[in-house]
Protein backbone atom coordinates (compact mmCIF):
# COMPACT_ATOMS: atom_id res chain seq x y z
CA UNK A 1 0.00 0.00 0.00
CA UNK A 2 1.45 3.43 -0.91
CA UNK A 3 2.23 5.95 1.87
CA UNK A 4 -0.22 8.83 2.22
CA UNK A 5 -0.10 12.49 3.23
CA UNK A 6 -3.12 14.03 4.83
CA UNK A 7 -6.34 12.09 4.56
CA UNK A 8 -5.81 9.12 2.28
CA UNK A 9 -4.04 11.07 -0.48
CA UNK A 10 -1.14 9.15 -2.05
CA UNK A 11 2.31 10.61 -1.33
CA UNK A 12 3.68 12.42 -4.39
CA UNK A 13 6.62 10.92 -6.22
CA UNK A 14 9.17 12.70 -8.31
CA UNK A 15 8.85 16.36 -9.32
CA UNK A 16 5.95 18.41 -8.12
CA UNK A 17 4.40 20.70 -10.71
CA UNK A 18 4.47 24.34 -9.78
CA UNK A 19 1.37 26.51 -9.95
CA UNK A 20 3.20 28.49 -12.62
CA UNK A 21 2.60 27.28 -16.11
CA UNK A 22 5.15 24.76 -17.36
CA UNK A 23 7.32 24.87 -14.24
CA UNK A 24 8.39 22.03 -11.99
CA UNK A 25 9.85 22.04 -8.44
CA UNK A 26 11.64 19.04 -6.95
CA UNK A 27 10.09 17.71 -3.73
CA UNK A 28 13.43 17.74 -1.88
CA UNK A 29 13.90 21.42 -2.76
CA UNK A 30 10.46 22.25 -1.34
CA UNK A 31 11.35 20.61 1.99
CA UNK A 32 14.63 22.58 2.17
CA UNK A 33 12.89 25.92 1.67
CA UNK A 34 10.26 25.18 4.30
CA UNK A 35 12.94 24.06 6.77
CA UNK A 36 14.92 27.28 6.31
CA UNK A 37 11.80 29.42 6.77
CA UNK A 38 10.88 27.62 9.99
CA UNK A 39 14.45 27.97 11.36
CA UNK A 40 14.54 31.68 10.56
CA UNK A 41 11.24 32.22 12.45
CA UNK A 42 12.58 30.39 15.50
CA UNK A 43 15.84 32.36 15.65
CA UNK A 44 14.51 35.78 14.71
CA UNK A 45 14.78 38.44 17.44
CA UNK A 46 16.49 38.39 20.87
CA UNK A 47 15.83 35.55 23.26
CA UNK A 48 13.31 36.31 25.99
CA UNK A 49 14.41 36.02 29.60
CA UNK A 50 12.58 33.30 31.48
CA UNK A 51 10.63 34.25 34.55
CA UNK A 52 12.35 33.29 37.76
CA UNK A 53 15.86 33.72 36.34
CA UNK A 54 18.72 35.68 37.92
CA UNK A 55 17.11 39.01 37.05
CA UNK A 56 14.02 38.42 39.21
CA UNK A 57 13.64 40.73 42.23
CA UNK A 58 13.74 39.01 45.65
CA UNK A 59 10.57 38.75 47.70
CA UNK A 60 10.58 41.57 50.27
CA UNK A 61 6.98 41.57 51.54
CA UNK A 62 6.48 40.40 55.10
CA UNK A 63 3.27 39.36 56.85
CA UNK A 64 2.21 40.54 60.30
CA UNK A 65 2.94 37.09 61.78
CA UNK A 66 6.43 37.12 60.25
CA UNK A 67 6.98 40.69 61.45
CA UNK A 68 6.12 39.64 65.00
CA UNK A 69 8.39 36.58 64.77
CA UNK A 70 11.27 38.78 63.62
CA UNK A 71 10.60 41.30 66.39
CA UNK A 72 10.53 38.58 69.09
CA UNK A 73 13.83 37.12 67.86
CA UNK A 74 15.41 40.58 67.83
CA UNK A 75 14.15 41.39 71.34
CA UNK A 76 15.28 38.01 72.70
CA UNK A 77 18.80 38.63 71.36
CA UNK A 78 18.81 42.13 72.88
CA UNK A 79 17.79 40.76 76.30
CA UNK A 80 19.87 37.59 76.44
CA UNK A 81 22.77 38.23 74.10
CA UNK A 82 22.03 35.07 72.07
CA UNK A 83 19.17 33.93 69.79
CA UNK A 84 16.28 31.70 70.89
CA UNK A 85 15.86 28.08 69.94
CA UNK A 86 12.85 27.17 67.79
CA UNK A 87 11.13 25.70 70.86
CA UNK A 88 11.70 28.87 72.90
CA UNK A 89 10.41 30.95 70.00
CA UNK A 90 7.30 28.77 69.73
CA UNK A 91 6.58 29.28 73.45
CA UNK A 92 7.02 33.06 73.17
CA UNK A 93 4.69 33.24 70.16
CA UNK A 94 2.18 30.77 71.61
CA UNK A 95 2.31 28.51 68.54
CA UNK A 96 3.50 24.99 67.77
CA UNK A 97 7.11 24.04 67.11
CA UNK A 98 6.24 23.26 63.47
CA UNK A 99 4.59 26.67 62.96
CA UNK A 100 7.56 28.50 64.48
CA UNK A 101 9.90 26.50 62.23
CA UNK A 102 7.83 27.47 59.18
CA UNK A 103 7.90 31.17 60.14
CA UNK A 104 11.68 31.07 60.49
CA UNK A 105 12.05 29.31 57.13
CA UNK A 106 10.01 32.05 55.43
CA UNK A 107 12.10 34.80 57.04
CA UNK A 108 15.31 33.05 55.97
CA UNK A 109 14.00 32.67 52.42
CA UNK A 110 13.05 36.36 52.27
CA UNK A 111 16.45 37.45 53.54
CA UNK A 112 15.50 38.78 57.00
CA UNK A 113 17.16 35.99 58.98
CA UNK A 114 20.34 33.99 58.58
CA UNK A 115 20.61 30.51 60.05
CA UNK A 116 23.77 28.57 60.82
CA UNK A 117 23.32 24.86 60.11
CA UNK A 118 23.49 22.28 62.87
CA UNK A 119 23.20 24.88 65.65
CA UNK A 120 20.21 25.13 68.00
CA UNK A 121 20.88 28.84 68.49
CA UNK A 122 22.00 29.65 64.97
CA UNK A 123 19.59 32.49 64.08
CA UNK A 124 20.75 36.03 63.30
CA UNK A 125 18.75 39.06 62.17
CA UNK A 126 20.41 40.40 59.04
CA UNK A 127 17.78 42.80 57.77
CA UNK A 128 14.88 44.93 59.00
CA UNK A 129 11.60 45.47 57.10
CA UNK A 130 11.84 48.56 54.89
CA UNK A 131 8.35 49.64 55.92
CA UNK A 132 8.99 49.23 59.65
CA UNK A 133 6.71 51.65 61.44
CA UNK A 134 8.79 54.26 63.28
CA UNK A 135 6.00 55.98 65.20
CA UNK A 136 7.94 57.29 68.20
CA UNK A 137 6.31 58.71 71.31
CA UNK A 138 8.19 60.92 73.82
CA UNK A 139 8.14 59.51 77.35
CA UNK A 140 9.32 61.68 80.28
CA UNK A 141 12.26 60.51 82.36
CA UNK A 142 11.66 61.12 86.06
CA UNK A 143 14.54 62.03 88.30
CA UNK A 144 12.98 61.05 91.60
CA UNK A 145 9.93 59.18 92.85
CA UNK A 146 8.78 60.11 96.33
CA UNK A 147 5.67 59.66 98.44
CA UNK A 148 3.27 62.58 98.48
CA UNK A 149 4.65 64.17 95.31
CA UNK A 150 3.02 64.14 91.86
CA UNK A 151 4.85 61.79 89.53
CA UNK A 152 4.82 64.15 86.57
CA UNK A 153 5.65 67.39 88.36
CA UNK A 154 7.63 69.59 85.98
CA UNK A 155 10.57 69.90 88.35
CA UNK A 156 10.78 66.11 88.52
CA UNK A 157 11.23 65.57 84.75
CA UNK A 158 14.91 65.46 83.76
CA UNK A 159 14.60 64.45 80.10
CA UNK A 160 12.68 62.27 77.69
CA UNK A 161 13.12 59.04 75.78
CA UNK A 162 11.56 58.26 72.39
CA UNK A 163 9.70 54.95 72.57
CA UNK A 164 7.94 52.94 69.86
CA UNK A 165 4.24 53.70 69.82
CA UNK A 166 3.34 50.04 70.29
CA UNK A 167 5.17 49.97 73.63
CA UNK A 168 3.63 53.18 74.99
CA UNK A 169 0.18 52.94 73.40
CA UNK A 170 -1.86 51.57 76.31
CA UNK A 171 -1.81 54.24 79.00
CA UNK A 172 0.46 56.99 80.25
CA UNK A 173 4.11 56.02 80.59
CA UNK A 174 7.21 57.31 82.31
CA UNK A 175 10.85 56.22 82.47
CA UNK A 176 13.29 55.78 85.34
CA UNK A 177 17.05 55.30 85.47
CA UNK A 178 17.90 52.00 87.18
CA UNK A 179 20.34 52.00 90.08
CA UNK A 180 21.91 48.85 91.51
CA UNK A 181 22.13 45.24 90.35
CA UNK A 182 19.13 43.60 92.04
CA UNK A 183 17.42 42.80 88.69
CA UNK A 184 20.29 41.53 86.56
CA UNK A 185 18.72 38.08 86.05
CA UNK A 186 15.81 39.90 84.34
CA UNK A 187 18.42 41.62 82.15
CA UNK A 188 17.86 44.99 83.85
CA UNK A 189 21.19 46.58 84.67
CA UNK A 190 22.43 49.68 86.40
CA UNK A 191 22.11 52.72 84.15
CA UNK A 192 19.31 51.22 82.03
CA UNK A 193 16.11 53.13 81.44
CA UNK A 194 12.97 51.20 82.37
CA UNK A 195 9.78 52.22 80.53
CA UNK A 196 6.88 52.04 82.97
CA UNK A 197 3.15 52.12 82.23
CA UNK A 198 1.43 53.96 85.05
CA UNK A 199 -1.13 51.73 86.79
CA UNK A 200 -2.11 51.21 90.44
CA UNK A 201 -2.47 47.40 90.28
CA UNK A 202 -0.40 44.54 88.85
CA UNK A 203 -0.46 40.76 88.64
CA UNK A 204 1.85 38.22 90.19
CA UNK A 205 4.88 37.79 87.93
CA UNK A 206 4.88 41.42 86.70
CA UNK A 207 8.00 43.53 87.06
CA UNK A 208 6.79 46.67 88.79
CA UNK A 209 7.94 50.00 90.13
CA UNK A 210 6.69 50.09 93.69
CA UNK A 211 6.85 52.72 96.39
CA UNK A 212 7.59 51.09 99.73
CA UNK A 213 7.46 53.73 102.40
CA UNK A 214 9.66 56.54 101.04
CA UNK A 215 11.70 54.38 98.67
CA UNK A 216 10.91 53.46 95.05
CA UNK A 217 12.15 50.11 93.82
CA UNK A 218 12.00 47.91 90.69
CA UNK A 219 11.13 44.34 91.63
CA UNK A 220 9.19 41.24 90.59
CA UNK A 221 5.78 41.15 92.25
CA UNK A 222 4.91 37.77 93.79
CA UNK A 223 1.42 37.06 95.17
CA UNK A 224 0.21 33.75 96.55
CA UNK A 225 -2.81 33.49 98.82
CA UNK A 226 -2.14 36.04 101.58
CA UNK A 227 1.57 36.21 100.86
CA UNK A 228 2.96 39.21 98.97
CA UNK A 229 6.65 39.72 98.17
CA UNK A 230 8.80 42.03 96.10
CA UNK A 231 11.44 39.71 94.70
CA UNK A 232 14.81 40.73 93.27
CA UNK A 233 16.24 38.91 90.27
CA UNK A 234 19.64 38.44 91.85
CA UNK A 235 20.43 35.65 94.35
CA UNK A 236 22.56 38.06 96.39
CA UNK A 237 19.44 39.82 97.66
CA UNK A 238 16.56 38.36 99.70
CA UNK A 239 12.87 38.89 98.87
CA UNK A 240 11.09 41.77 100.58
CA UNK A 241 7.98 40.48 102.39
CA UNK A 242 5.01 42.82 102.51
CA UNK A 243 3.02 42.62 105.72
CA UNK A 244 -0.49 43.96 106.42
CA UNK A 245 0.98 47.08 108.01
CA UNK A 246 3.40 47.83 105.16
CA UNK A 247 2.69 50.92 103.09
CA UNK A 248 3.02 49.50 99.54
CA UNK A 249 1.95 51.45 96.48
CA UNK A 250 2.24 50.15 92.91
CA UNK A 251 3.27 52.99 90.59
CA UNK A 252 3.31 51.01 87.35
CA UNK A 253 4.36 47.98 85.36
CA UNK A 254 7.68 47.82 83.51
CA UNK A 255 6.89 47.36 79.80
CA UNK A 256 10.26 48.07 78.21
CA UNK A 257 13.98 48.53 78.75
CA UNK A 258 16.25 50.98 76.97
CA UNK A 259 19.93 50.20 77.30
CA UNK A 260 22.32 53.13 77.03
CA UNK A 261 26.02 53.02 76.22
CA UNK A 262 28.05 53.57 79.42
CA UNK A 263 29.64 56.71 77.98
CA UNK A 264 26.30 58.23 76.99
CA UNK A 265 24.15 57.73 80.09
CA UNK A 266 23.84 61.47 80.67
CA UNK A 267 22.65 62.21 77.12
CA UNK A 268 19.01 62.20 78.21
CA UNK A 269 19.53 65.44 80.12
CA UNK A 270 18.07 67.97 77.69
CA UNK A 271 18.24 65.62 74.70
CA UNK A 272 15.70 62.98 73.67
CA UNK A 273 17.13 59.47 73.92
CA UNK A 274 16.76 57.46 70.72
CA UNK A 275 17.17 53.77 70.06
CA UNK A 276 15.21 50.52 70.27
CA UNK A 277 13.21 49.52 73.31
CA UNK A 278 13.26 45.90 74.48
CA UNK A 279 9.74 44.85 75.48
CA UNK A 280 9.22 43.26 78.88
CA UNK A 281 6.35 40.86 79.62
Model description:
With 281 residues, this protein is α+β, with helices and mostly antiparallel strands. Helix content is 20%, strand content 27%. It has four helices and 16 strands. It has helices at 27-43, 64-80, 86-93, 97-109, and strands spanning 4-5, 9-10, 16-17, 24-25, 113-115, 123-125, 136-142, 157-164, 173-177, 193-198, 207-212, 215-224, 227-231, 240-241, 248-258, 278-279. Strands 7, 8, 9, 10, 11, 12, 13, 14, 15 and 16 form a ten-stranded mixed sheet that branches. The chain has a two-stranded antiparallel sheet with strand order 1-2. Strands 3-4 form a two-stranded antiparallel sheet. Helix 3 (86-93) crosses helix 4 (97-109). The relative contact order is 0.10.
Summarize the structure.
This protein has 281 residues and is an alpha+beta fold.
Number of E-type strands: 16
Radius of gyration based on Cα positions: 36 Å
Q: Give the uncertain stretches in residue-range form.
A: 2-7, 14-41, 43-58, 274-281
Q: Output the CATH topology of the largest domain.
A: Umud Fragment, subunit A
Strand content: 25-35%
Helix- and strand-based class? alpha+beta
* Count of discrete domains: 2
Amino acid sequence: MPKTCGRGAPAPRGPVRSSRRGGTLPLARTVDIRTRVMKSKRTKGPAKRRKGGPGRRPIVSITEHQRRTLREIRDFIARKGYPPTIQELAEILGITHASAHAQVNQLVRKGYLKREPRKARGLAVVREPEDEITDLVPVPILGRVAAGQPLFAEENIIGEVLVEGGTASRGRCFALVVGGDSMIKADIHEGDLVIVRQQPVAESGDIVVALLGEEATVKLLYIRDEKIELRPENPKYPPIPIGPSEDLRILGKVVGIRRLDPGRRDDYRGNPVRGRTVNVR
